[in-house]
Design goal:
Layout (H helix, E strand, L loop, with lengths): L1 E5 L2 E3 L5 E8 L8 E6 L6 E6 L5 E3 L7 E6 L4 E6 L8 E9 L2 E4 L3 E5 L2
Parallel strand pairs: 2-11
Antiparallel strand pairs: 1-3, 3-8, 4-5, 4-9, 5-6, 7-8, 9-10, 9-11
């Protein structure tokens, strides 16, 4: 299983970024996909989830600003991040579970700064 994340970068407060994560080695249509983030010295935090029925969930701090979506035809999960805040600055990871194992992408840095 491989997860390849992309789309991070530097953006001003209030700006937007879209992260993508391409998955291979899984039956993507039945895989629950996750976006996590982890700031230095802090625990990894589950940000948002999309299930096989495309049910989504988000932590309170990103509700109304972040949207997770999945493209089953392209085995890709995306995270649209709007109204970004400096406190959103950290590394973002996509993740899935397959046959009892956790898999992680390499992480993509998001920096929100003026």
């Amino acid at each position: 299983v491989q997860l390849q994340a992309s789309g991070g970068g530097l953006v001003q407060p209030g700006g937007s970024l879209r992260l993508s994560c391409a998955a291979s080695g899984v039956n993507f249509r039945i895989a629950t996909m996750y976006w996590y983030r982890q700031a230095p010295g802090k625990q990894r935090e589950l940000v948002t989830t999309t299930t096989t029925s495309e049910t989504t969930s988000h932590i309170d701090s990103v509700k109304g600003r972040f949207t997770i979506s999945r493209d089953n035809a392209r085995n890709t999960v995306r995270l649209q991040m709007n109204s970004l805040r400096p406190e959103d600055t950290t590394i973002y990871y996509c993740s899935t579970q397959w046959w009892g194992y956790d898999y992680w992408g390499q992480g993509t840095q998001v920096t929100v700064s003026s």
